[in-house]
Write a structure and sequence with these properties.
By secondary structure, the chain is mostly helical. The chain contains 19 helices and twelve strands. Strands 3-4-5 form a three-stranded antiparallel β-sheet. It has a three-stranded antiparallel β-sheet with strand order 10-11-12, with no helix packed on it. It has a two-stranded antiparallel ribbon with strand order 1-2. 31% of the residues are buried.
Length: 556
């Protein structure tokens, strides 16, 4: 009935059927009136809910800031619900267009989809054939291999990008291994950003299929290359594919050289890195200036709290430590014929890459997932390869919480022990959706000094953007007793970030490990939803529906 009412896109405001549809939404709202915690952002989406939120948000100006955010989340959930419904229909369409096209999924696995099914979908949706082909293939994968992901998508708790990340990560795995990866990440997926979810998926894939992950890395490494492509307005792109450690180290070194150009350099950080790369690769810059005995201000800022100077963040344009007045910017916009300058790198002794690896994996006893900070999980073989030419630091973590307890110091010119401890504990910026390395950021007081102490509980790794956001009007940050940091937005919404958990998935306690599905609870929930739908339909048809209190009690 609801679908029939919605078939007419254009309807007069006084259309009685449209008014009946809104009455139906009111009935649904009335059935949920006892749920005091219900908001647009936490309601399970449906066709009725879509109609309800659409009617309730017609007057945008009359909504509060918090209601606007809740409505945005609500529409996001409705979008996920609609996309999941479409995926189910696409999977059914693929089933009806039977065939055997091994090229569909770019593997040698047989597929039941007909060769020209993507053309039908592409013509209907105005999509390129390969795009339609990928969408059909993903729908089939969700229906046949990852039904739990499809269910969560139908509830609006996942969006298309998260679902695509899960499908892509499990694409080349067997059905059993794909479901094992899904089981490890699915419970956490709704609370993660796409980048955080991809990192969790990489870690799960390595844990489930360590040999396959190592083999796939070796195959990908054989394909490393450099290419050039034309861009608009007289520009071009120079693109390099290399191993993750090499790419991270190269970028970090360019960043340090760019910071060495000084605060007076008018160019942004991206422009500095591009000019330095061109100067280095073309031979105009062949060496860096010898390190001075006196560290720059940027060196000092990188190892201390920066409540007053956090704006000088390595990722922000126009920032960096000071340089001697006689230095100039390399390969500047004035032309390539200028003499090659010699910028002094900032913090030249700090490690370019940071790898987290269990001791058992280091000695070859197992192949647990390792972490290249700033990139994500990497295979154990690659981590051991990095460790053969690296300075090692000992980390001891609490097996119950996964939080670092002790930070061994055996490197050259180490920062203060407290700074070491905080950076090792956090690993990444403690903004809930930020994945910038704590190694590149600042140590920030949660409660500003001198009102708050300088200790591990009041310090956290923070990039410049999060620092400025924390001090913006309406924002607040609190340290919780369980080690989490709570961020409160101007609308009153609360979000949390956790310290880095060093434990592999196999060592997680039951409350954090991927949980087994509670079949009885799921069945009870389904029955409850069916009963609610039955009552709603009865009310719609004008039938009398007894209250719950009127139901006969046993023994009947």
């Amino acid at each position: 009935m609801f679908d029939q009412l919605c078939e007419e896109v254009v309807a007069e405001p006084g259309d009685p059927r449209l008014e009946d549809a809104f009455d139906w939404a009111c009935i649904e709202r009335e059935l949920r009136r006892d749920d005091e915690d219900r908001t647009w952002g936490n309601t399970v989406p449906s066709g009725l809910f879509a109609l309800e939120i659409d009617s309730d948000t017609c007057d945008e100006a009359g909504l509060s800031d918090a209601q606007l955010i809740d409505a945005v989340v609500g529409f996001e959930r409705v979008t996920g619900w609609a996309e999941a419904r479409q995926a189910r229909l696409l999977a059914e369409f693929a089933r009806r267009r039977s065939g055997d096209d091994p090229a569909l999924m770019a593997t040698d696995k047989p597929c039941t989809m007909g060769r020209f099914a993507p053309d039908e979908v592409g013509l209907a949706l105005k999509l390129a054939r390969m795009t339609a082909k990928a969408r059909l293939g993903r729908s089939v994968q969700l229906r046949q291999v990852l039904p739990e992901t499809l269910t969560l998508w139908s509830q609006g708790r996942l969006d298309e990008r998260r679902v695509a990340a899960i499908c892509e990560a499990t694409h080349y795995l067997s059905v059993e291994k794909a479901r094992a990866v899904q089981q490890r990440v699915l419970d956490r997926a709704p609370d993660l950003t796409v980048g955080q979810l991809k990192a969790a998926l990489k870690r799960a894939v390595i844990a489930v299929d360590p040999e396959g992950a190592a083999e796939r890395h070796r195959a990908a490494r054989r394909d490393r290359r450099v290419s050039i492509s034309e861009e608009q307005d007289g520009m071009a792109s120079l693109w390099a594919l290399m191993s993750a450690p090499d790419a991270q180290a190269s970028f970090q070194w360019l960043t340090r050289l760019a910071l060495g150009c000084g605060r007076d350099d008018p160019r942004g950080m991206d422009a500095r890195r591009a000019d330095l790369a061109a100067a280095l690769l073309s031979g105009r810059l062949t060496h860096a200036a010898p390190e001075s005995d006196t560290e720059s201000d940027a060196d000092a800022d990188a190892d201390t709290d920066t409540d007053k100077g956090a704006d000088r963040d390595a990722g922000d344009e126009g920032c960096g430590g000071p340089a001697p007045e006689t230095q100039t910017s390399p390969a500047g916009e004035s032309g390539a014929g200028a003499p090659a300058p010699v910028p002094r790198p900032v913090n030249p002794g700090k490690p370019l890459v940071q790898v987290l690896m269990p001791f058992s994996t280091l000695i070859g006893a197992d192949d647990k997932s390792c972490e290249l900070v700033g990139h994500g999980p990497i295979p154990a073989d690659l981590a051991r390869e990095i460790a053969t030419d690296a300075t090692l630091r000992r980390l001891v973590y609490d097996p119950l919480s996964g939080t670092v307890l002790d930070y061994g110091r055996s490197t050259y010119r180490p920062p203060a022990g407290l700074a070491d401890f905080v950076r090792a504990r956090d690993v990444y910026c403690r903004g809930p959706i930020c994945r910038r390395r704590a190694l590149d950021g600042h140590l920030d007081h949660i409660t500003p000094y001198p009102h708050g102490p300088t200790n591990d509980k009041n310090l956290h790794g923070c990039c410049g953007h999060e620092h400025r956001m924390k001090h913006a009007p309406g924002w607040a940050v609190r340290a919780l007793d369980d080690g989490r940091i709570q961020w409160i937005t101007p609308t009153g919404h609360r979000y949390h970030s956790d310290p880095y958990d060093y434990r592999p998935d196999d060592d997680l306690p039951p409350d954090k490990a991927p949980a087994e599905r509670d079949v009885a609870k799921d069945l009870a929930g389904r029955l409850e939803r069916l009963e609610r739908d039955r009552r709603t339909t009865a009310l719609w048809n004008g039938e009398a529906v007894p209250c719950d209190d009127d139901v006969d009690q046993p023994p009947f």
